[in-house]
Amino acid sequence: MSTVSKIVPFGSGSRIVETARRTLSTASQGIDALEVQFSDRDFAAIFLRLVGVIMDVRGRLIVTGMGKSGIVARKLTATLTSTGTPAIFMHPADAGHGDLGMVTPDDVVLMLSYSGESNELGPIIHYCKRFGIPLLGLTARSESTVAAASDVCVLLPAVREACPNELAPTTSTTVQMAFGDALAIALMEMRGFSADDFHKFHPNGSLGAQLLKIRELMAKGDGVPRVREDASLLDATMEMTRGRLGGTAVLNQDGELVGAFTDGDLRRTVTDTQHLTEPVGRYMTPTPLTVGSDDLASEALRLMHLHNVTLLFVCDGGQLVGAVHMHDLLNAGVA
């Protein structure tokens, strides 16, 4: 049985589309209002205090919230933990049934509540006051319980919900989410959190694949086919076959990379001459495209597509250290 007591037909598709557009416009106005807040000196000062407290925490940031604010708090927790700020979500309904035990004197609690009056937050507030746990508040009402109890309280702008009944949290949760992202990125930059750090926390999935370094995928040592430039075409062909990368590096007498000889070069060579005893240096591709071992694998794949090649040699400080094939990149999920 439907829980909808009454269905009012819209009458036209254009009205449905207009409702969706109006919802987005209302959400956008909420974010604009939040951005304006940061231009206020007092608001900016409170935000800096908030960041300072979190930066100085010796333990973890305990993030909590009830209802829709709780869902935003979960998302904020996930963003913080993946960008260098140790955080954990604590559900208010479970807090009074033992989960308050996860809060230590080294921790800080960040409490999200648009109204600032969720009853389930009471035990957490009392616990923080009793044991001297710093409490950070994020609310829209300055005279609320959360605002009064917080050691540092960020007052979000009071916004109009997109819900036509002004009941369902819509714009307010959008503003909370946007503020959470702003906070997480500010902390991320303060910590100097790099792409390498990000990859450590995201080793799996497509995101992790885009952050892979070439050194993690390249062939190295004896796995890199190589010949001297005075080696014969036959020797180069045998080395290519051994290496199974579709090509071989060509080195000069000082061991420096001076060219590449690929399957394509071989086919063109055999078409022109049958003298497989001739030196490969005469038929190689000089000054081949190279990458460094610390370059991103995604950049290597971009270069391969741009220059229509499937093999790149890896050089550090002018010395050949590896080779990477397009198949290795694609098999690793690099796109």
Automatic annotation (TrEMBL):
Domain CBS as annotated: residue spans: 218-278, 284-335
Keyword match Isomerase: yes
Residues in SIS domain copies: 50-193
Positions that bind Zn(2+): 91
An annotated GO BP: carbohydrate metabolic process
Identification of the protein by name: Arabinose-5-phosphate isomerase
Its EC number(s): 5.3.1.13
PROSITE patterns membership: CBS, SIS
Top-level taxon: Bacteria
Residues flagged as site, Catalytically relevant: 68, 120, 161, 202
InterPro entries: CBS_dom (IPR000644), CBS_dom_sf (IPR046342), GutQ/KpsF_isomerases (IPR050986), KdsD/KpsF-type (IPR004800), SIS_dom (IPR001347), SIS_dom_sf (IPR046348), SIS_Kpsf (IPR035474)
CDD domains associated with the record: CBS_pair_SIS_assoc (cd04604), SIS_Kpsf (cd05014)
Keyword entries, A-Z: CBS domain, Isomerase, Metal-binding, Repeat, Zinc
Similarity remark: Belongs to the SIS family. GutQ/KpsF subfamily.
GO molecular function, one term: metal ion binding
